[in-house]
Write a structure and sequence with these properties.
- By secondary structure, the protein is α/β, with parallel strands linked by helices.
- It contains 30 helices and 30 strands.
- A hairpin with a 2-residue loop joins β13 and β14.
- The strands form 8 sheets. The chain has an 8-stranded mixed sheet, with helices on both faces. An 8-stranded mixed sheet has the order 8-7-9-10-11-16-17-18.
- α1 packs parallel to α2 and α14 packs across α24.
- The N terminus and C terminus are likely disordered.
- It has 5 domains: about 200 residues, Rossmann fold (3-Layer(aba) Sandwich), CATH 3.40.50.2300; about 160 residues, 3-Layer(aba) Sandwich (Rossmann fold), CATH 3.40.50.2300; about 120 residues, Periplasmic binding protein-like II (D-Maltodextrin-Binding Protein, domain 2, 3-Layer(aba) Sandwich), CATH 3.40.190; about 90 residues, Orthogonal Bundle (Helix Hairpins); about 70 residues, D-Maltodextrin-Binding Protein, domain 2, CATH 3.40.190.
- It is found in: Postsynaptic cell membrane.
């Protein structure tokens, strides 16, 4: 931006003559003088004056009935006496309005005189609300195009809320500046983080102040200072490492876009500012063109880009435009004539048109360089639009959002653009990744003979490969570092400082790895089955069915189990077998349940089967009962470990965590009463239950003989149980958390890194890494089945298989005896009935296989109980057979017709 202007060369008469020549109708126009007061300081007042003069020129080019004549005066910002005199001079020259000045002190004097003379007073600077509130009388003749103080403060507050700043530091240089931020100071409640307010003086060295802010850990800074100080403060902030990724600045000045930030464009911090105008609009480009061409005609050089136009200059342009509109529309109904007024006259006169012009401007809506222009009843600009701009390395300040009192912050860039910008900023950067040694996340790589390892090659593990995968996706470099104290991080209430990994994060050491913690699961409803393994239960069911079937078959084959259904009736000619399948099942069921039965087998084979089954049932029932007691005792112990409530109530089993770890912090800071009791118990236990690492906790569990439990992260626990098969996870977890990559607060890379992690998850790479480091590398996969509390204590087939072998052998013996009993009976039948053994075998076997028949006629044989009382078995048989034949008549056929008898069961005729 190049300026070369002689201020004394600004006289309105040559400009008026130029306007007359350009309009071609100077004689037909009435002259309406307008006054302006600018400051005599080397600031941008000359740009505002140029904007004021050429805005009037453009108005005069289009007006047919009047032309505005600018009358300019210059005063010092602090010289109130001279300011008063200059205002009175303007009034004496008959000005119809006074524009400016931009100082609050001198502007108040001008406004007071204009109120007395009823001359419109138009200002373009920030004006605070008086302590006693606005007096409508005092403000009756003042119009302010600068955004209303309270609304502008609310815009800044909305931006801070949108950015989710929980704490921040305000740097200001004047009391006026602090007043502009009153809404910001009020958005925090008593329970919120404190706001730090720091004032800078005239000392140009801001580094001590910036270092204090840096040591406090604050990363959010609001700059409420003069625009000419902003660049130097940020330059010094860069020197003390306060323009890094994690610092964010909001510049409250509406002229921040006019500062040349070229040397800071590549800084890594976020610098946000507000702007009242759209620098790419046609109106501002057209205005800048007028300024440059007008100065060229006056043989003066002036260059300014639309992106660097000061807010005050744009407001002067809009102020002239809206004032000319009011004059034009009121002049159409009543001719407006200037009046020369005197400040010191005894007969004080007021300009009769002033109040009407002001009231018209208050209700009139215009659109200018600074957007929509709407005033409230007090002449304040209460509705306006702001551009939220952000410093970028490619385009300087770039518009990212807009703000208005109705809708608040509304972003104009997409999430994709934000993500692309962050990913681009990551390219070719090197990050420090702080972690600690802990399998399987990060471990020292095992060296081969003569091998020298350095840098990242010293390590291996899940965390290293995870970060390596992310770095390949996002294109950054990284360097692994170990935290010196080897801790995850805990807060020391005495020193009020963090240690471990958290300290590194607070010290802005880029990325660090944190791990998960333990959660609660429901108990097994069918845990009563656990004393016996599933295989044993299946074998028992099979044995139960097998023994029942064997008992049923043998009872049909054994003659002793065919009984007289009516014992009191000795001559009953039929016998029954009560051992149907249902009774066989009932006998075996009652035996295994330890209960008796009303009926018992009588044959040797069936008795042997029943005896073997009773023996088996006794052994299994005793084993189950004994093991159930042990199992329930164990379940109570495990439940104590898996249930926080039970663990907190008992004192026999000790429990602990890693000292200074995240699990310890969980118990230490928990508000839940159970966890508080657990923490108190751990803290007071002697000897100490805390360990320095998970490995020490693992070894302590092994040596503790089930009298020590170690609370640790579930993922680390899973890693250990994959390699130590005598250890197991008891119960569930105390709470549930997942993996996380920890970064300093407000890190701009969080979204990009989270996106990279999600991409790895979708591609299945996280699962592959988990499988690789948990189940494959460094001895993983040794325990094919992770034992649990019930599996450790249940009886398997290896424990009780012997009783099944005894049962099988006993049943085999019973089956053989049953066969022998059956054959012996066949022999007896063949001898007694005088048939061939083969015919007797077929007849008896056919009857035994017909399971639907449960009774049969009595054979003409003598039982062993009656044979001892007779003289000879043969004679008694003949006598009995004779009596049977006498009772049966011709019922019986010869042995040759045995197979034609319809009813199973046989009576042999000796004829």
């Amino acid at each position: 931006m190049l300026h070369n202007i002689q201020k004394h060369s600004f006289h309105y008469l040559p400009l008026v003559l130029l306007i007359h020549a350009l309009s071609g109708s100077a004689d037909a126009k009435r002259e309406i003088p307008v006054g302006a007061i600018f400051h005599q300081v080397p600031d941008h007042s000359y740009e505002s004056e140029i904007a004021f003069r050429y805005a009037i020129e453009r108005v005069n080019m289009h007006e047919k009935h009047f032309e505005l004549v600018p009358i300019v005066r210059y005063v010092s910002p602090e010289d109130s006496f001279k300011t008063e005199r200059k205002v009175c001079e303007l009034a004496a020259e008959g000005v119809t309005a006074v524009f400016g000045p931009s100082s609050i002190l001198t502007s108040g004097i001008v406004g007071s005189i204009c109120k007395t003379l009823e001359i419109p007073h138009i200002i373009t600077h920030w004006d605070p609300e008086p302590l006693g509130g606005i007096d409508p009388e005092l403000q009756a003749m003042t119009i302010n195009l600068y955004p209303e103080a309270d609304v502008l403060s609310r815009a800044l507050a909305d931006l801070i809320v949108d950015y989710s700043w929980k704490s921040f530091t305000i740097i200001y240089d004047s009391d006026e500046g602090l007043m502009r931020l009153k809404d910001i100071l009020q958005i925090h409640g008593p329970s919120d983080a404190p706001i730090t307010v720091r004032q800078i003086d005239d000392d140009p060295d801001y580094r001590p102040l910036l270092k204090d802010i840096q040591s406090s850990g604050e990363s959010h800074i609001i700059l409420e200072i003069r625009p000419d100080r902003i660049l130097e403060l940020l330059r010094q902030a860069k020197e003390v490492k306060m323009l890094e990724e994690y610092q964010s600045y909001i510049i409250t000045s509406l002229d921040a876009h006019t500062i040349d930030f070229e040397e800071l464009r590549y800084s890594r911090s976020n610098i946000t500012a507000l702007r009242l105008m759209d620098t790419k609009s046609f109106d501002i480009k057209n205005a800048v063109h007028d300024w440059e061409q007008g100065e060229a005609r006056m043989k003066r050089q002036f260059r300014v880009s639309p992106e660097h136009v000061h807010t005050e200059s744009a407001l002067y342009n809009d102020a002239v435009k809206i004032y000319a509109t009011a004059i034009r529309e009121l002049d159409a109904t009543e001719e407006i004539t200037p009046s020369r007024l005197s400040c010191g006259s005894k007969n004080l006169r007021q300009w009769p048109f002033g109040l009407r012009i002001i009231n018209y401007m208050k209700v009139k809506t215009e659109h200018g360089i600074t957007g929509p222009i709407i005033f409230d009843d007090f002449g304040r600009r209460a509705h306006f639009h702001l551009d939220i701009i952000e410093l970028s390395k490619d385009e300087g300040f770039k518009k990212i959002a807009t703000w208005d009192p109705t809708h608040g912050v509304n972003y104009t860039r997409s999430q994709g653009e934000v993500y692309s910008q962050i990913v681009e900023s990551l390219q070719n950067k090197t990050f420090i990744v702080a972690s600690r040694i802990g399998a399987p996340f990060l471990m020292f790589k095992e060296k081969k003979d003569g091998e020298f390892l350095e840098g990242n090659n010293r390590f291996e593990g899940y965390s290293l490969e995870l970060i390596d995968g992310i770095s390949k996706i996002l294109g950054f470099q990284y360097r692994m570092e170990l935290v010196p104290d080897g801790k995850y991080g805990s807060y020391n209430k005495v020193t009020k400082k963090w240690d471990g990994l958290v300290k590194h994060l607070l010290d802005r050491v880029s990325i660090s790895i944190l791990y998960a913690k333990p959660v609660q699961q429901p108990k097994d409803l069918f845990s009563f089955l656990s004393p016996l393994s599933l295989d044993v239960w299946i074998y028992m069911a099979t044995a139960y069915l097998g023994v029942s079937v064997l008992l049923f078959v043998l009872s049909r084959m054994a003659p002793a189990d065919w009984e007289n259904p009516h014992p009191c009736k000795q001559d009953n000619d039929e016998v029954e077998n009560i051992w149907d399948m249902f009774n066989a099942l009932w006998l075996t069921m009652g035996s295994i349940m330890g209960q008796g039965c009303d009926i018992l087998p009588k044959a040797i084979s069936t008795r042997l089967v029943a005896g073997m089954w009773w023996f088996f049932a006794l052994i299994m029932l005793s084993s189950y009962t004994a093991n159930l007691a042990a199992f329930l005792t164990m379940e109570r112990m495990d439940a104590t470990i898996e249930s926080a409530e039970d663990l907190a109530k008992q004192s026999k089993i000790k429990y602990g965590v890693v000292m200074g770890g995240s699990t310890m912090a969980f118990f230490q800071t928990s508000n839940f009463s159970t966890y508080q009791r657990m923490w108190a118990s751990m803290e007071s236990a002697r000897p100490s239950v805390f360990t320095k690492s998970n490995d020490e906790g693992r070894d302590r569990v092994i040596k503790g003989k089930r009298m020590y439990a170690f609370l640790m992260e579930s993922t680390s626990l899973e890693y250990i149980t994959e390699r130590y098969c005598d250890l197991t996870q008891i119960g569930g977890l105390l709470d549930s958390k997942g993996y996380g990559i920890a970064m300093p607060v407000n890190s701009p890379y969080r979204t990009a890194i989270s996106g990279a992690v999600l991409k790895m998850q979708e591609e299945g790479k996280l699962y592959q890494l988990k499988t690789r480091w948990w189940k494959e590398m460094r001895g993983g996969g040794q325990c094919t089945e992770v034992p649990n509390s019930s599996q450790e204590n249940e009886l398997g087939i290896g424990n009780v298989g012997g009783v099944f072998v005894v049962l099988a052998l006993g049943c085999l013996c019973a089956f053989i005896i049953g066969i022998l009993e059956f054959l012996w009976n066949v022999r007896k039948v063949a001898v007694e009935e005088k048939v061939t053994p083969w015919d007797a075998l077929k007849a008896e076997l056919k009857f035994a296989l017909n399971i639907s028949v449960t009774s049969k006629p009595v054979h003409n044989t003598l039982s062993e109980s009656t044979a001892s009382g007779k003289s000879s078995l043969r004679s008694k048989s003949e006598s009995r057979r004779g009596s049977e034949l006498a009772g049966r008549g011709n019922n019986v056929r010869t042995a040759a017709s045995l197979n034609n008898i319809d009813k199973i069961g046989f009576v042999f005729d000796k004829n």
